[in-house]
Amino acid sequence: MRRIIVISMMLILGATAAQAQRYDRGYENLNSLSTVFTPKGSFMLGGNVRYSHHRMNDYSVLVINGINSTGSTVSASPSFLYMVKDNMGIGARFSYNRSHFDLESANLSVSEISMSVQDYFRLSQSFSGMVLLRPFIPLGPGGRFAMFAELNLGASFSQSKNTVDINSAVKGSFVEKYKIFFGVNPGFTAFLTNHLAMEFSLGMLGISYGWSDQVHNQVSQGSTDAAAASFMVNPASISLGLCYYL
Predict the structure, then answer these.
(1) 21 found inside a domain
(2) What is the pTM of this model?
(3) What is the DSSP letter of 10?
(4) Is residue 25 part of a domain?
(5) Cα separation of 128 and 183, whole Å?
(6) How far, in Å, CA of 53 to CA of 70, rounded?
(7) 195-213, pLDDT tens digit by residue?
(8) What is the DSSP string of 190-217?
(9) Does residue 14 lie in a domain region?
(10) Which of 40, 169, 170, 187 has the greatest number of C-beta atoms within 10 Å?
């Protein structure tokens, strides 16, 4: 009888101790340990601008030689966020991209096979817009560093024109492309001053559907459509920009 009483008391004390020593993962202390990174009612203005230009004179790459070409690319992508509550912003981003490539001549020579291209020209431009939802996760109590996971939903439209001279006959095509997409872009941001911050982000999850219409030589027409989904780090979507918080 005494043994049963002792075992019962040990079980009761063990259960009481286990309840008192609850495992703490730190979530309840998260708000007390970190300050507000972006307070409710504040604004964020940001974006990036890019310009590149190249010129080649009798340049050679592997089996391609005699390359004479010029080209340039310019793009701008402004963004805006309004903080609906602490560390949570809703906004929009717009982007414009324009590029041109003019190839005067190039020669390809592999073994006994040789061919040349002359007067190839390509001009393209694209527009896109998206709505954003960005929650911030402050890092440390200073409120200077934070991580975020940006969700975006948007659409894009692009046009391109291609012409080439083949055996003294000019051929060309005109293409219009449309796309709708959804993506998740994690990133990191840090304040350089009290209002200016630098941010880094990359594409992680992307779902898209697009279609295009083509007119070739102003005679024949064609169309395509494609859907894509990916869950991986996309090096082509790495972005670095500056943001200003008001």
Answers:
(1) no
(2) 0.73
(3) H
(4) no
(5) 14
(6) 8
(7) 899 998 888 888 999 999 9
(8) EESSSSEEEEEEEEEEEEEEEEEEEEET
(9) no
(10) 187
